[in-house]
Amino acid sequence: MGCASSVPDRNAGSLTGLNDGSTASDSKNLKVKLVLLGDSGVGKSCIVLRFVRGQFDPTSKVTVGASFLSQTIALPDSTTVKFEIWDTAGQERYAALAPLYYRGAAVAVVAYDITSSESFSKAKYWVKELQKHGSPDIVMALVGNKADLHENRVVSVEDAVEYAEKNGMFFIETSAKTADNINQLFEEIAKRLPRPSVVSV
Amino acid sequence: MEGGVGGAVSSPASTPLTWNDFLDRMRQPSAVNFVKSIKSFIESFTTKVRNTEEDSASVQQFLFNMVEAFRAHPLWAGCSEEELESAGEGLEKYVMTKLFNHAFASNPDERKHDEELSEKMALVQQFIRPENLDIKPTFQNETSWLLAQKELQKINMYKAPRDKLVCILNCCKVINNLLLNASLSTSENHPGADEFLPVLIYVTIKANPPQLYSNLLYIQRYRRESHLVSEPAYYFTNIFSAESFIWNINAKTLSIDELEFQNNMESARALLPGISTNTDSITATSQTTHHDVKTERIKSKESQASENRKKLDGKVSDTAKSESVSVLETKGANDLLKEEELRKYFSEYQFLYASAGDLTVKDVENLLDNYKQLVLKYVSFLKGIGAFNPSFPSSLTEKSAETSNTREPNDVKESDRDSDKFDVFCKAVEDSISESPSDQTDQTMESNDHHEFPDADGNSSVNTWTEDSGMLGFNLSPTRVEEILNSDTIGNSITNISKDHGSLDSDSEKTQRSNEAAVP
Lengths: 201, 520
Known about the structure:
The structure holds two protein chains of two kinds. By secondary structure, chain A is an alpha/beta fold. Chain A is 26% helix and 21% strand. Chain B is built from 21 helices and no strands. Chain B has helices at residues 6-10, 18-27, 32-47, 52-72, 81-103, 108-124, 142-153, 161-185, 193-207, 212-222, 230-247, 258-275, 279-283, 292-312, 321-338, 361-384, 395-406, 419-432, 439-444, 478-487, 503-518. In chain B, helix 2 packs across helix 5 (81-103), helix 7 (142-153) packs antiparallel against helix 8 (161-185) and helix 8 crosses helix 10. The longest helix of chain B has 25 residues, at 161-185. The two termini of chain B are 12 Å apart. The chains are: A alpha/beta, B mainly alpha. At the A-B interface, helix 1 and strand 3 of A face helix 1, helix 5, helix 8, helix 9 and helix 11 of B.
């Protein structure tokens, strides 16, 4: 819900595809692989779409698939970060495939739905997996989505904060529906990226 | 429509001119050293003992070094990054087409994996339902998925890693567009990976693309590393995941009751020999111990069937009959080469020794008639020995049609005039064979891209870009055809049978067509 109202601009996906191999990251312009994990139905793709289309003309009729998207943001220190966002299938039966996706990722965003304790448990599972098998310097963010549905909240902010702190993660609650905190999420991630060593894309 | 993996696939940057541009530059006298390096690399690669890891590393290193050398060379002076990019693509295609027979599916374990995987898909495809993979009803549209399946099934028609990758990307693109259309016409959310991956898995199972595992490894090893990044890498990871999921498929991963799953597999197994001739994989079966008894039964059924066939044609071996086609063919070719007067065998095929320049407009009709007869003979022959498999709808005709579309205009004069007739013919063939070409045929129908640089001194008298018999599905490699042609001394100047696949061009066009078709 809440992410089907308009569609992103054609540039949003930056579909340079097969011939995009020559763009290298440098210290001013980072290119990072971000993997998105979380139960199905927590709104992973909505978060990305919000982020990606926010800065483009929402009246554009061009549509893109939401499983791979990229978006560049500029930081105050005049550097840019290009996120290449890899969505993963959240259904239980596909859990074993996730390592293929987060291999080499510089960032992992682990999302859950604040109205579903099950999705929070699943998020914890992903965090453990990443700690075991992800790259050691991966930047992890814990994201409680659907913050607009606070009347149905079952996962408290306190619990999530505590868990995130214990695991050295950055935590934020978002609403893909209202766009609350979406940009903040990605800006915060960008700030936390280890500068020179992140050139892993 | 743009979007999805769209840009990746139909990106015009390196498309139509890439390949010819690369070859043209290589024919320049100043490219002589490049040609030498390439030839010597190919030579050294083909003669050394296979080691997949080292092979991949050496090709990657070579391609990288060459592109750097291009960059510094006067031939590319003042060229844009894009043109250099084209050269890199051309180089990769040239080198890998040459190395294909050595680099593709060279490992026996991987070939075994291919067979078992293919068998698994052949079984599972008979009972799997979209819900088994969590595909929501909104996104269930099996008819449209056929388009995606077709893209995937083309993977063995190409030899270059990029071309193979494009087949995968095209398949993903079609799926993305279908999902998007479905989500726009309902109130469903924008589809993400939760929707995409299950459909890709479903489509892959239904398509049962030939040698999927080997193809994926080949792309991973030989597509230039710098180009297996970003979006293509993402979709490549998805198909790899799909392969891994299918390989490990069981009752649990499909949310089917264990007993029901077993029963489904058994019924599928029992049905398979009856409706298909994909017996290679059936006999290679039986890693599943539960089914040993059943498998035995099927095996005996199968050999019974082959017994019957044996009566019809005493030469067909009773185990792997598809293989026997190629065995026969190879044997025949070897025998032919020993013949003193090879030419007499070909006297009725008047165009065999012709080059494109010899043809007149009037010949086109003759040629076409000849071709039709040949195809019908060949198809009947295959049919006769039972080498057809119904699991690949219309790929023979499709391939033929495609080839006719992508033909260079100067290859065969006035070819357009016949395209209508040709389509009718294709249709007729399609109608006349209720079953379609087998896996085996499919594999052998791969493009026999065979390209030669001129001699180092720049003489390029031999570049006849003719269609070769690859489109008919002969197992004979172009080199072998060449060998046969040349072994009979008739003073003909054909030293090269080659065909530009034109894949880049045609792929984007075709996908566009598929997508237009996909959009209601």
